[in-house]
Amino acid sequence: xxxxxxxxxxxDDFNKVKKNFKKLLFRMKSTKTWIFIFFVGLLAAxxxxxxxxxxYFFQKNLIEIEMAQLQTSAAVMSGxxxxxxxxxxxxxxxxxxxxxxxxxxxxxxxxxIDERFVIVSDSYxxxxxxxxxxxxxxxxxxxxxxxxxxxxxxxxxEVAVPINGTDGSILGVLVVSKDLDEVYKNSxxxxxxxxxxxxxxVAVILVLLFERGIGKxxxxxxxxxxxxxxxxxxxxxxxxxxYELRLFAKDFNxxxxxxxxxDESRQEFVSNVSHELKTPITSIKVLADSLNMQDDVxxxxxxxxxQDITNEIDRESKIIEDLLSLVxxxxxxxVMNISSVNVNEMLEIVLKRLKPIxxxxxxxxxxxxxxxxxxxxxxxxxxxxxxNLVENAIKYNVSDGWVHVSLNADYQYFYVRVEDSGIGIPxxxxxxxxxxxxxxxxxxxxxxxxxxxxxxIVQNIVLLHHGTIKLHSEEGTGTTFTVRIPLNYVG
Length: 491
Known about the structure:
EC number: 2.7.13.3
CATH superfamily of the domain at 331-486: Histidine kinase-like ATPase, C-terminal domain
Low-confidence stretches: 1-7, 442-449
Radius of gyration: 50 Å
Keywords: Cell membrane, Kinase, Membrane, Phosphoprotein, Transferase, Transmembrane, Transmembrane helix, Two-component regulatory system
Membrane topology: Multi-pass membrane protein
InterPro entries: BphY/WalK/GraS-like (IPR050351), HAMP_dom (IPR003660), HATPase_C_sf (IPR036890), HATPase_dom (IPR003594), His_kinase_dom (IPR005467), HisK_dim/P_dom (IPR003661), HisK_dim/P_sf (IPR036097), Sensor-like_sf (IPR029151)
Pfam families: HATPase_c (PF02518), HisKA (PF00512)
Largest sheet: 5 strands, antiparallel
Structural class: alpha+beta
Strand order of the largest sheet: 2-1-5-4-3
Strand content: 15-25%
CATH architecture of the domain at 331-486: 2-Layer Sandwich
Order of helices and strands: HHHHEEHEEEHHHEHEEHEEHHEE
C-alpha cells in the first residue's frame, strides 16, 4: 500500500477516534450522566454500609443461636455421666463412642477433662492424655457452673459444663467447642446476599423514578430553552420541580423578561430617534417650500425664514451631538480617562461658564463647598454631568429664582447637590426623566432647545464612575439632584 494512502487512512482513523472521544466528553458533561454516576456511587456506598451492618447483626444473631444450641447439647451430654461413678465406667458403657458420633454429625469438638485437668477423651483424637490449663475449665470445675465463651479472633464458641458423678461430686469438666467460620460463609453470606439484592433492587427503582420525575422536568426545561433559541422568545420555563430547577427557571425567565424589555426599549429608541431627527427636517422643508412658492419675498421675511431654518439646523445638530455622546457613554464601549482632579476647582470653572446663562434668565447661581475634595474621575465626562444638571436647573427655573450647587465628602465618597427653585417635576414623571428622549413638557423642552437626552447622558456617566444619582422634586417648589461618586475609582 502506498505511503500517502496509509497516511490518509491513519488520519481518517485518528479523526474517527477524536470524534468518538468528543461524543464521550459530551455525554460525560450531560446532567443525566452525572446523575447516573452519582447514584452508582451512592449505591456502592450504601451497599458497603449495608454489608458491614448486616454482617455484624447476622453474626451476632448466629452466635447467640449457636451458643444456645451448644449449651443445650453440652448439658445433655454431661447428664449421661450422672449414672456412672467414674470415667472408665462411662467409657465401658459407650458414652465416649456416642459423643464421637455426635461430634462427627454436628461438626463440634467434645473433650472430657478429669479432676487433674487431664484430657481423658477427645472426639478429634489429637489431645488425648494432655493437660489443659484453661480459665473456662478451671472456673467451671471450681464453681460447678456452666461457662460459655466466644473467641472472636478464631471465630470459635466454647462451652464448659461440670460433670457430676452418681454421688453428686464433680468428676471433671465437659468442653464442647464449635468453629463458626464455615457457618459464617454459608449462613451469613447467604443472608447478606439476599439483603444486597433487595437494596440493589430498591436503588434501581429509585434511580428510575428519579430519572422519570426530575429528568422529565429537565427535558421540558431544555425543550423550552431550545425553542427560545429558535426564535420563540415569548416562552418561559414553569417555576416548579427541584430547588435547583426552580432557581434556574427564575433566572432564565428574568433574563428573557429583561431581554424583552431591552428589545422594546431599543425599538422605542429607534422610533424616537427617527421622530426627533425627522421633525427639524420637516420644519426646514416647510420653511424652504414656503419661500420657493412665493414671488418677490420681502427681505425681512426672507431673513426671518432663514433664521428659523438655522434654528432647526442647530436643533438637528444638537440632537445628533447628544446621540453621539450617548453612544460614547455606552458602558461596553466607553473609555475612561481617569485622573486625580480637584473637584472644587472643576465646579467653579463649570459654574463660571454657565453664569451668563443664569444672568440672562435672572437666576442667582450659588456655589457652596464644605471641604476640599480631590477624586479620581474622568474630568471631561464629569464636567458634562455638572453642566447638564446646572443648565437644566437654570432653564426650567422661575424668574428671579436660584440654583444652589454644593460639594461635600466623607472618607469614601464625594457628593454634588444641585438644587433649584424651579417648576419641579410631576411625581408620575420622576421615574422616567432618565429615559432617552423623555420630556416632562415637550413644548417647553423644544423652546429651551432640549433634546430629551441630557439626563440619560448624565446617568450613564455617573454609572461609569460606579456612582449613584438621586432625584427629589415637588411641583411648583423645585428639584434636587444628588450625585454620589467614589473618591477612588475602581475599574
